């Protein structure tokens, strides 16, 4: 299959975006959900290389912080970001109902899986994210298969975890754990005396270092890392399509369309080496197609995020058992910067 129509669209939008930058004299600004300042460095570099002359800035912060600022700014009648990419799925549906999003369907839009994007193009499923459990490759004397394996005595005092009541995606995983193993799992986990570190990036990076041996909700790993991620044998794991959209108040509309078209393109999606939101991108790195895994469902997290009452109740449960979330934002903690940039 050729994608000449997508390439032609990108080139046409690129011309418009370059002309726009000369008029607006304002950087194209993307707000991205995340918890480490370098999480969008690869996307930034790809876009800059592919479309030189477009002055792009990507600001990473927790999705739950970005969205509050967006609601406040919308209420005041202005908006800083041109495009937002967030984990808070429910926000995009709210903004669609509020009539504040600008619809756009690129040439690649029709290839995105059903249910990931808004049918009218008000937002798109930009890329698949996944959290997977991790263990230290050298220090753990067995290969964990499921979440309950982290209750093994070898992990006592050596688990590093994201506070589940600080991140909805992590909370979602623990909700599934409770449904399978009961609330007793949490009390057994508490006996393991885990170390809680805000954000998902730092706990994932610390496994295999500083004496930490495991993380229940971590990142997919690479061969050169001291930890190994795994897809649970039969426990549920989370995958979701991170959403992206532009607004009616977006100032750099041509650049926003170019960016969204690039995210949806086969060119970008096939470069990630991971599961794709498109139906026509082949998985790399030994992964099976996402549909082959019966213990994950990207659409389920979308539905789950709509039930804010249930989420609030879950947060309260974790606060009662493990205490309040402690520490400053993971994007403002200097001690974590050494973890993100591997200068431990």
Automatic annotation (TrEMBL):
GO biological process, one term: thiamine transport
Keyword Methyltransferase: no
Keywords from the UniProt entry: Periplasm, Signal, Transport
Cell compartment(s), UniProt: Periplasm
Keyword Metal-binding among record annotations: no
Domain of life: Bacteria
MF term (GO), any: thiamine pyrophosphate binding
GO cellular component: outer membrane-bounded periplasmic space
Protein name: Iron ABC transporter substrate-binding protein
Naturally occurring in which organism (per UniProt): Chryseobacterium oncorhynchi
Taxonomic lineage of the native organism: Bacteria, Pseudomonadati, Bacteroidota, Flavobacteriia, Flavobacteriales
């Amino acid at each position: 299959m050729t994608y000449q129509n997508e390439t032609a669209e990108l080139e046409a939008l690129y011309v418009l975006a370059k002309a726009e930058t000369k008029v607006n004299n304002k950087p194209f600004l993307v707000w991205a959900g995340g918890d480490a300042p370098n999480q969008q460095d690869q996307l930034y570099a790809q876009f800059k290389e592919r479309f030189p002359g477009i002055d792009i800035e990507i600001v990473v912060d927790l999705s739950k912080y970005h969205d509050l600022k967006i609601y406040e700014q919308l209420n005041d009648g202005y908006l800083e970001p041109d495009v937002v990419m967030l984990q808070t799925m429910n926000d995009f549906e709210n903004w669609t109902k509020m009539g504040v999003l600008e619809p756009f369907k690129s040439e690649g839009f029709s290839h995105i899986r059903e249910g990931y994007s808004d049918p009218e193009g008000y937002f798109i499923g930009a890329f698949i994210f996944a959290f997977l459990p991790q263990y230290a490759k050298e220090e753990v004397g067995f290969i964990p298969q499921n979440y309950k394996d982290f209750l093994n005595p070898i992990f006592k005092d050596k688990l590093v975890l994201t506070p589940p009541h600080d991140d909805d995606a992590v909370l979602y995983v623990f909700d599934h754990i409770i449904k399978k193993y009961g609330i007793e799992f949490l009390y057994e986990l508490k006996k393991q005396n885990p170390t809680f570190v805000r954000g998902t990036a730092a706990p994932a990076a610390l496994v295999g270092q500083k004496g930490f041996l495991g993380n229940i909700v971590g990142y997919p790993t690479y061969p050169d890392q001291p930890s190994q991620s795994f897809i649970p044998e039969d426990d549920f794991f989370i995958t979701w399509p991170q959403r992206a959209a532009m607004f009616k108040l977006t100032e750099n509309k041509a650049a926003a369309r170019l960016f969204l078209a690039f995210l949806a393109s086969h060119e970008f999606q096939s470069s990630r080496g991971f599961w794709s939101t498109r139906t026509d991108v082949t998985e790399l790195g030994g992964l099976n197609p996402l549909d082959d895994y019966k213990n994950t469902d990207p659409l389920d997290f979308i539905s789950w995020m709509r039930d804010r009452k249930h989420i609030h109740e879950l947060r309260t449960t974790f606060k009662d058992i493990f205490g309040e979330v402690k520490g400053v934002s993971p994007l403002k903690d200097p001690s974590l910067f050494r973890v993100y940039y591997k200068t431990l």
